[in-house]
Amino acid sequence: MKKVLSLILALALVMALLVGCGGNEATTDEGGEGGEGATGETVKIAFVGPLTGDNAEIGQQMKTAVQVAIDEWNAKGGVIGKTIVMDDFDDKNDATEAGNIAERIASDDSYVAVIGHFSSGVAMTAAETYQEAGIPLINGSAAHTDYSAIGDYIFRNNAIYNVDASSAIQIIEHFGYSKFAMIQPNSDAGVSISNVVHEFLEKYDDKINAELVAEELYEDGTVDFSAAINKFNEAGAEIIYTTAPYSIVGPLMNQYKAINPDIVFVLSSGAFSQELLDLAGENANGSYLPNSFFDQSSNPVTQAFVESFSAAYGSNPNTFAAQCYDAANMIFTAIEAGQSDAREDIKNNLYEVSVDGAAGKTQFDENGDCPKEQVCLQIVDGAWTEVPDVILPVTEWEASLAA
Amino acid sequence: MIAQQLVYGVILGMVYALLAVGYSLVFGILRLLNMSHGSVYAFGAHMALMAVTLTWGLPAAFIFTIVATGVLNVVINNVVLAPLRARNAPNITLLISVTGVSYIIQNGLMLTFGSTRMPFPKIFDYGNITIGGVTITSTQLSILIVTLLLFAILFLITNCTKMGLAMRCSSQNPKAANLVGIDVRKVVTFTFFLSGMSAAVAGYMIAGYYEMVYFTMGTAAGLKAFAAAVLGGIGVLYGSVAGGVIVGIAEAMATTFLGSNYAEASAYVILFLVLLLKPSGLFGKDNLEKV
Amino acid sequence: MKSIVSTASNFMHKNKLWLLLAIIAVLVILPFFGLSSYLIRVLCMIATYSILALSLNLITGFMGQTSMGHAALYCIGAYAGALFSTRLGTNFWISLIAAIVVGALAGAFEGFVTMNLSGSYMTVTTLAFAQVVTMVAQNWTSLTNGPLGIKSIPRPTFFGIELTTNNGGLYWLVLAFLILTVLFVTAIINSKMGRAVIAIKEDELAAKLMGIETKRYRIAVVAIAGALAGVAGCYYAHMSRYVDPKVFSFDISMTILTIVIFGGLASIPGSILGAIIMVAFPEALQFLSEYRFLVYGFILVIMMRFRPQGVLGGLSKQPYKLPAGVKSKAREAAAQAKEA
Q1: Closest alpha carbon within chain C to B290
Q2: What pLDDT digit, counting tens, does each position of C184-212 carry?
Q3: Set of chain A residues whose Cβ sits within 8 Å of the Cβ of B110
Q4: How high is the pLDDT of residue A28?
């Protein structure tokens, strides 16, 4: 008897669940039938990111940044007279979950645009669905070269791999290091960037003095790097280039400096955070980081954003948060510009408008990419400082090498 | 270079051994793969961080961590597992329950402490020691010493105390142990406390070694330590040390000769091969039927 | 209340076939109710996990060997299907056959290496097997494209029609796979092989002494499970159109195992119900944001606490059916009692 009872209970539970998640869509569908795009008094966007799991804090930061942008617009009276609301979804930075969520968002007419997804692989899986459904997606963190080629509804506000790689090589060259080593994550991002570095080194073989002496790919979740460090040391590396997030760079620096106090690091945007300074302490000093966002920049937009973000979140924003903030502003500006919150109009206007953002001028090119200019930051006495005139934009740098 | 890599491998092995022993202790008595141990270890590290931030001083912080984590493990046993055992639930059910517990602890930690990686003060930082071209930091040395010390204590408890005798009896045959007057329930509770204690020591030491604490710290390390415990022969104390050291050296060697991307899986390749040749692990006993 | 439940349960047992047909009919026409493509996709994932759970149930529920690495076979099936479709350009059905064959071979290998193991060591060996499979997928870049994964896998087609979640095609496809899997597993369980496998679960030594070639059966069962996981993997790869090694992590292995135990060991409807619950929960709990896996953990613990044998698990209360022609004293006695 108990079995039948528990079976009935379980079934009832499932029904309730399915009705529950289907229910809110039914109501919004009714709203949608009232008139295309006229969803009452609100404009609804979706945010997707890793809110739980290993990358949870990055997702939380990105979500907060988008919320900050929404609050600012709503304080000014919303966009085209409507209040902006956001629904957030957790994809755990997992391709399967992201695929499910993408279907869910795409099949709900009330969403006008999507911001988020963290890593390239995950974003690219979801992007196929958004492209088919015709809903604009702006991602603030994917660096994969093929990402924006998925379609015209797919935008990104982040530096592409070749920008990162060229900046890193420029830093190594500028400060006169001759032997460098790389340690990258064994993920789509890490493998791609390592390929780009190799391409540059081969292409400008005679122009680049620095030599790549050792290279490692680490698996997600690694905390012990002593064996890899020993390998680098034996190879005589003077400077280490890594695109690892701060959570990896922190322990890497601590372990490396305990063995070789003279080592220097070149990092990338994933490591740009206060947490790195907390984790690595003195060991972080001297490290370089090319980035398109600097929270202490004198730019008033950046200052205003950093202030409202840290009030909402409790610490300063990272690069991806800033880029998601700009992405949100791009969407709202595009809605204002076209006086329409229809998905297709937003897409078309996104190619037209530009925003003076927290992470520099934001404007999409015909591919949906945002050309990013990077500055060289260095950690001095436990604080990020700007080192001017180190990095040229990729095209200019390549031109100077080719000359 | 090889000698240096071997030393690093051994130290890493000690890290795994610290965790592996917790799996081994519980398995020895209950034949249960306690998948929540990794999360309990993360809990221990967070307790240690809390105690350190409140500047209670090292001894008090250490004792607080051990007691809090031990109590958590006892609670898991008494609230979640004991009722299931009382109902004679299949062991595989217990496996799913501890997986659920693992979710609860990990996400509870995330909600309480946040999802950032938090710095933890380095332990025993007195510079490096170089012998014959091989460098070892004082922190690494302290990991080695503490692990061996912990194992010595556990060895004494299981072999020289009345409780230890009861543990070994219950491990061989719980029913018979009950018949000769051993309170098996008490023994199980004590074992869980001991396992929690080892997780706390691991949490404190490993957090101090890598200088950080975060809520998912038990996931990857826990699974690999678990592999190490099985490799050495789960349920046997020195098997955990042996398994840990083998896994550590295997990872160091894989990094040296193949690259870091092969390190992660080398533990499992060795585990796979060892189990094929000796199904009960290197030092394991053969009569392990339950899951 | 009790009498209502017992009447309902009697009704269910008497009209089992009709009920089943009715359920299938409802499932078939489900996409016509205007479900969003998201809900269809969730249903597809439920069916995929049902197939995986049925496949694992053969090993764990019926044969009594716990595997914590079932994602390995799923992964191999998915990669086999994806590689055939993208590299060799075969259509979905050829890729499916390839995935089944490769899955079965991988299963046979896993069965072969674990045939002497039991209990925890079997469990851990399967776990290690899965980790090694993921490592191979991650590092054998020339074949699997490594961590970059395989992208743009073509959707399955049926007589030239592309099957999507929008036209419901993907749903009917996986529903057909699921129904075939249920029939197949039922047939196996009721065959000589099924009885041998259950004998292995009850007492491997006794089974061996009765003349059952236990090792051969153990290999065969894991190979069959591998073939079924191959179906699920190939379907998944063509539905999501992207696979990378991280998709088939340890978490997936645990989810499949949880479904089997949650639904009930050795219960075919249990595996399906378990999949419904385990897939629907994390989706339905989306509104909880960062709290959802905390709640998920509580659900696992509480369910196991109050129903350790799973929702549909436990011993069947139905009388054992003797093969036709065999007379049972008990049955005769019952018949006489009825007449009297």
Answers
A1: C119
A2: 999 999 998 888 888 888 888 888 888 88
A3: 52, 56
A4: 36
Q: How many domains does chain A have?
A: 2
Domain-embedded: residue B41: yes
Question: Quick one: closest CA in B to A251, which residue?
Answer: B210
Residues of C in contact with A20 (CB under 8 A): 284
Give the chains touching A; criterion: ≥3 Cβ pairs < 8 Å. B, C
Interval A288-314: pLDDT, tens: 999 988 988 888 999 999 999 999 998
Task: State the best of B31, B40, B76, B104 to mutate against chain C, taking most chain C CBs within 10 Å.
Answer: B104
B12 and A226: CB-CB below 8 Å? Answer: yes
Classify residue B83: in a domain, yes or no.
Answer: yes
DSSP character string of chain B: -HHHHHHHHHHHHHHHHHHHHHHHHHHHHH----TTHHHHHHHHHHHHHHHHHTT--HHHHHHHHHHHHHHHHHHIIIIIIHHHHHTT--HHHHHHHHHHHHHHHHHHHHHHH-SS-EE-PPSS---EEEETTEEEEHHHHHHHHHHHHHHHHHHHHHHHSHHHHHHHHHHH-HHHHHHTT--HHHHHHHHHHHHHHHHHHHHHHHHHHHTEE-TTHHHHHHHHHHHHHHHH-TT-HHHHHHHHHHHHHHHHHHHHHT-HHHHHHHHHHHHHHHHHHSTT-SS--S-----
Give me the number of domains chain B comprises. 1
**Which pLDDT score, from 0 to 100, does residue C317 have?**
46
Number of domains in chain C: 1
Is the minimum CB–CB distance between B101 and chain C shorter than 8 Å?
yes
Contact call for B99 and C127, based on CB within 8 A: no
pLDDT at residue A92, as a whole number: 86
B84 CA to chain C: closest CA distance, Å?
6
pLDDT tens-digit series, residues A331-356: 999 999 999 989 999 999 999 999 99
Percent of chain C scored above 70 by pLDDT?
89
Q: What is the pTM of this model?
A: 0.85
Contact B275 C128 (CB under 8 A): yes
The pLDDT confidence band at residue A37, using thresholds 50, 70 and 90, is: very low
**Structural domain harbouring A64:** 43-159+299-363
Identify whether residues A138 and A176 lie together within a single domain: no
Cβ distance A108 to C151 less than 8 Å, yes or no, reads no
Instruction: State residue C324's pLDDT score.
Output: 56
Residue C133 lies in a domain: yes
Q: Which helix (H) or strand (E) holds A84?
A: strand A83-90
> Tell me, what CATH number does A134's domain have?
3.40.50.2300
Q: Is B99 on the interface with C (CB under 8 A)?
A: yes
